[in-house]
Design goal:
heterodimer; A: mainly alpha; 2 helices; B: mainly alpha
């Protein structure tokens, strides 16, 4: 036999009738959430693409700076070699001119 | 098993099938109709993402009960309004057929308030026991707690409720 107090509790806690718009409101929130998720995903893809582009640009720029530095270094070495050779030639001429 | 691709017909059907249970649980745990609707919407939103991992109807119902209880208490902790429901917010009786209906309504309201004023653990156990008609074993599985703990919360909850009912009865007798 069921306790009367417990039966009263069952009656009191019986779920209320739900208005017919609830399922529609949930569906709308699901739609909105999916829309937001898609938007976030698109933004993430755009951000990733921008990041890759920026990184590639920086890498290309860095390589170009390094190449220019290398060329400048080679030109400097060439100039030093040419200068050394010319100095040596001048020294030879000067030394020959000093001989009696 | 349901997949996200067929959610539109299936998901709406699921919402309609379980909305009363979820809103009822949330309302009985929070004593706040507006908050209960918000919690129920959040629970169904979470269900939409969780659907692929739910094996069957039984698993789904257990998941809904557990998540509703957790979210209801999370919301209450955030808002700290568990005791803040006034008579003005209470729903009006659905039928006004006379004094008997009104007395039933007031008794039900009073019982709901008392249940709503119980500490968290006994409250959710009492609500699952008397709203959902679950056995202590089923409640233990739903809330992932030992059966003896469930029985102890149930006993404590019922003692508190009976004590309040007795006190009111005594006050009424004294007034006569």
């Amino acid at each position: 036999m069921r306790d009367e107090f417990e039966e009263s509790l069952r009656r009191a806690l019986r779920p209320p009738a739900v208005d017919s718009g609830f399922a529609r409101r949930v569906a709308q929130r699901v739609e909105a959430q999916q829309h937001q998720t898609r938007r976030r995903r698109r933004l993430l893809i755009v951000a990733l693409a921008a990041g890759v582009l920026a990184f590639s640009g920086a890498a290309i720029h860095q390589r170009s700076v390094e190449r220019r530095n290398l060329e400048a270094k080679e030109q400097l070495l060439l100039a030093l070699r040419v200068t050394g050779r010319e100095l040596k030639r001048a020294q030879t001429v000067v030394l020959k001119g000093d001989e009696p | 098993m349901l997949t996200p691709n067929d959610w539109r017909p299936s998901f709406e059907t699921l919402v309609r099938a379980h909305q009363q249970r979820v809103i009822g649980l949330a309302r009985n745990l929070t004593l706040d109709a507006a908050l209960a609707e918000e919690i129920a919407q959040e629970v169904f939103l979470a269900l939409h993402s969780e659907l692929p991992s739910l094996r069957d109807e039984h698993h789904l119902v257990a998941w809904l009960r557990r998540v509703t209880c957790h979210r209801a208490f999370d919301q209450l902790r955030r808002r700290r309004t568990s005791q803040a429901v006034s008579l003005v917010q209470a729903p009006q009786p659905e039928s006004d057929d006379g004094a008997a209906a009104n007395a039933d309504f007031l008794l039900n309201e009073r019982l709901r308030r008392w249940v709503g004023a119980l500490p968290e653990a006994p409250r959710q156990v009492v609500v699952l026991r008397y709203q959902e008609d679950l056995t202590p074993d089923e409640i233990a599985r739903t809330l992932e707690m030992p059966v003896n703990t469930v029985k102890s919360h149930l006993r404590r909850g019922l003692e508190l409720l009976r004590a309040k009912a007795q006190r009111v009865e005594d006050e009424v007798s004294d007034a006569r």
